[in-house]
Write a structure and sequence with these properties.
Blueprint: E1 14-17, E2 20-28, E3 35-65, E4 70-72, E5 81-84, E6 88-97, E7 101-102, E8 114-121, E9 128-158, E10 163-165, E11 174-177, E12 181-190, E13 194-195
Parallel strand pairs: 2-8, 3-9, 4-10, 5-11, 6-12, 7-13
Antiparallel strand pairs: 1-2
Length: 196
Amino acid sequence: MKKLIISLFGLALIGFAGQASAASVQISGNGSDSYNRAKIRMSQYKTVSQSDYTKNSTTIVMDVNTGGNDVEGNTGNGSDNKVETGNVATDVIVSNVGGSNVIEDIDDCGCEPEEVDITIKNNGTDSTNKAEYSSSKKTRLSQRSKTHNYNSLGLFLNTGDNEVEDNTGKNGDNSLMTGRVRTSVLIENLGLGNLL
């Protein structure tokens, strides 16, 4: 009469210490003509997730004025009434930079080596004993970046609304001269990105 004993099917004695993983399987003490099989499947995963959100808000208001000048109500003979304004120049530079995600030196999953101990011994004659081991290591990466830029620009430039009036007198000149107005605005919006 043949004796059939099946022992240890599947995972056996799997222990974890920190990131290291260990497994130990022993197929022993089974009778003759028995079929014994053990499987070990080990998986390690590393997940890296990065998320970045940048919000920039820029408001620029410039009021540049050389106007609103008056030459009026002057009296006198042989006198000159004169108003002359200088030049006005403005330069504005704004740089908005969004955030970025950087993942460096990702090799495999960075998992600890696995320690596997498989022992097959002291089984009966004509017994069939199998031990199977498989391992997988995976790295999952996730990156997300979002940049929102809001720019508001208000420019008010004026060289007008000047008056020359009601001046009396002989042999005199009345003059009003305004300078030049120049303005320059540069707004640079940069949304960076993800780097692996």
